TrEMBL record:
Pfam families: C2-set_2, V-set
PANTHER family tied to this protein: CELL SURFACE GLYCOPROTEIN CD200 RECEPTOR 2, CELL SURFACE GLYCOPROTEIN OX2 RECEPTOR PRECURSOR
SUPFAM superfamilies with a match to the protein in the record: Immunoglobulin (SSF48726)
Highest taxon of source: Eukaryota
GO biological process: regulation of neuroinflammatory response
GO cellular component: external side of plasma membrane
UniProt keyword Nucleotide-binding present: no
Main location: membrane
Species per Swiss-Prot/TrEMBL record: Aegotheles bennettii
PROSITE patterns referenced in this protein's UniProt entry, alphabetically: IG_LIKE
Membrane topology: Single-pass membrane protein
Protein name, per record: MOR1B protein
Localisation per UniProt entry: Membrane
Length: 176
């Protein structure tokens, strides 16, 4: 989320036409097209965050700026040359790194929250001990994971919460 992403489409010599067909998981179909005989680009229903990376006659790559979960879906590049047709399909999935927080509850137990991640984070503890976790799904596809550490005799010693996630692991420590 928030980064730019470039989807490549093999450049071909003798390019006649290039079309990106985008079918998002949510929202309407859009296309970006280029015709070499007219040296003309067209766009239909595509947001301003999607455009050619360079000149489509030289490199038909698609750039998505400020990637968000709304960009998830199927992206197909179709290249037509005098000799052949070429298709490249991408299934774009967007990762959202959760926001990690840690606090002590009223009983003095560490409680770790990995908020609004996609997919859900996995929470583990150091030192190892008993913990209970629950997940809460949100309408935008993100998930918040809440984990309570309940090992005995951690008074005054640091307990570390580790959130493992494909977008990057995070950790934080607290003494309750």
């Amino acid at each position: 989320v928030g980064n730019s992403s470039v989807l490549t489409c093999a450049p071909k010599s003798n390019l006649t036409m290039v079309t990106w067909k985008i079918t998002p998981n949510v929202g309407g179909f859009c296309t970006l097209g280029y015709r070499a005989d007219q040296n003309k680009t067209e766009r239909t229903n595509c947001s301003g965050s999607m455009n050619w990376k360079f000149r489509p006659d030289q490199d038909p790559a698609l750039e998505i700026q400020q990637v968000g979960t709304a960009h998830e879906g199927i992206y197909t590049c179709e290249v037509v040359t005098r000799d052949e047709n070429f298709h490249e399909t991408y299934h774009l999935t967007v990762l959202v790194q959760p926001r990690l927080s840690l606090h002590c509850d009223a009983q003095g137990n560490p409680v770790c929250q990995a908020a609004a991640g996609k997919p859900a984070a996995r929470i583990s503890w150091v030192p190892e001990g008993n913990s209970s976790s629950r997940e809460e799904g949100h309408g935008n596809g993100t998930v918040t994971v809440l984990s309570k550490f309940s090992a005995h005799s951690t008074n005054g010693t640091d307990t570390t919460c580790i959130a493992s996630h494909p977008a990057g692991d995070q950790s934080t420590s607290i003494a309750c």
